[in-house]
Amino acid sequence: MSERKVLNKYYPPDFDPSKIPKLKLPKDRQYVVRLMAPFNMRCKTCGEYIYKGKKFNARKETVQNELYMGLPIFRFYIKCTRCLAEITFKTDPENTDYAMEHGATRNFQAEKLIEEEEKRVQQEREDEELNNPMKVLENRTKDSKMEMEVLENLQELKELNQRQAQVDYEGMIDQYREMERREREREKEEDERETKDMLERALVKRLRDSDSDSEKEEESNSSQSKMSSTDKPTDILTFDKTTETQGATPGGVKRAKVESWERSVGTLGNGKAVGSLLVRKKQPAAAFNKPSSVAAAASSSQIDSKVSTADSHASKPVTTQNGSSSLSLLGAYSDSDSSGSD
């Protein structure tokens, strides 16, 4: 695909351009080209406006017997977008522009007309001064006189404005300086106020932080004092609980409801429950089979003494190192003895 874009063709060494036959084409032949409208125009037939930059498929031809400094002039034919009337314009290399020729009128060319009029007047003046020295002197005198009149009129207008306005320039300058001074003072006061507010906010924040730290210290001290006020951490275990009757024993004594966590270590009851426990000493087999009256009396006295000691222990529980009560141990021992005796 790249070879089709090559502009330079190969010419063999024996190439002779005179052998190429020339086509006999007319000099005023036309070509179809794509162009844009060079200026705003209005169709004379239907009054349609054609704006600058509108694209057309135009026919192009070379104007015969018309040259500007050896440059050819071209003519373009376009059609109106509404009525299809033919519009023609041609190039103007003298003014580097285009000239409307037929079918439409050019719009918005007042500035161009003024420039053309000025050029015409200047050209006529130069032609007059070319061969007439007195005309040159006359034109210079006229120009200087007109310039003096313009300066006098300008000075009169300035004096009239000063008399009517009566502006005190010194007062205006003083007022402007005073306004600048007040503006600087106001900005300085605002900066000082903002700085003071920032310092106050920082101080309040520090005070709040110190207050919060002191409150935390007081809370920690109070909690420590409360913990120290209690004698022992396990004293809460000896408080009486609200018991619920689960059932009655055959002897008619009501038992408290046993929690799941108390089953492995026994129950913590009151003195009556502990007092009802019996601690028996294991006797030899022979003595157990035939107990004597003396042994029976001795065992009954021992039982009474143990019951009284158990009551005293129930009135004052003793806590061990692991936080459990001795009463729970007694209860466990009593349960084991009762199961063994049974």
Automatic annotation (TrEMBL):
Compositionally biased tracts (Basic and acidic residues): 179-213
Subcellular location: Nucleus
Organism: Anabas testudineus (Climbing perch)
Family: Belongs to the CWC16 family. YJU2 subfamily.
Coiled coil residues, start to end: none
Organism phylogeny: Eukaryota, Metazoa, Chordata, Craniata, Vertebrata
Function: Part of the spliceosome which catalyzes two sequential transesterification reactions, first the excision of the non-coding intron from pre-mRNA and then the ligation of the coding exons to form the mature mRNA. Plays a role in stabilizing the structure of the spliceosome catalytic core and docking of the branch helix into the active site, producing 5'-exon and lariat intron-3'-intermediates. May protect cells from TP53-dependent apoptosis upon dsDNA break damage through association with PRP19-CD5L complex.
Keywords tagged on the record: Metal-binding, mRNA processing, mRNA splicing, Nucleus, Spliceosome, Zinc
Annotated GO MF terms: metal ion binding
Disordered: annotated span: 179-275, 293-342
Bias type Low complexity, positions: 221-231, 323-342
Polar residues: bias regions: 302-322
Protein name: Splicing factor YJU2
GO cellular-component term (any): U2-type catalytic step 1 spliceosome
Biological processes, Gene Ontology terms: generation of catalytic spliceosome for first transesterification step; negative regulation of DNA damage response, signal transduction by p53 class mediator; negative regulation of neuron apoptotic process
Subunit structure, as described in the record: Component of the spliceosome. Present in the activated B complex, the catalytically activated B* complex which catalyzes the branching, the catalytic step 1 C complex catalyzing the exon ligation, and the postcatalytic P complex containing the ligated exons (mRNA) and the excised lariat intron.
Positions that bind Zn(2+): 43, 46, 80, 83
Superkingdom per UniProt: Eukaryota
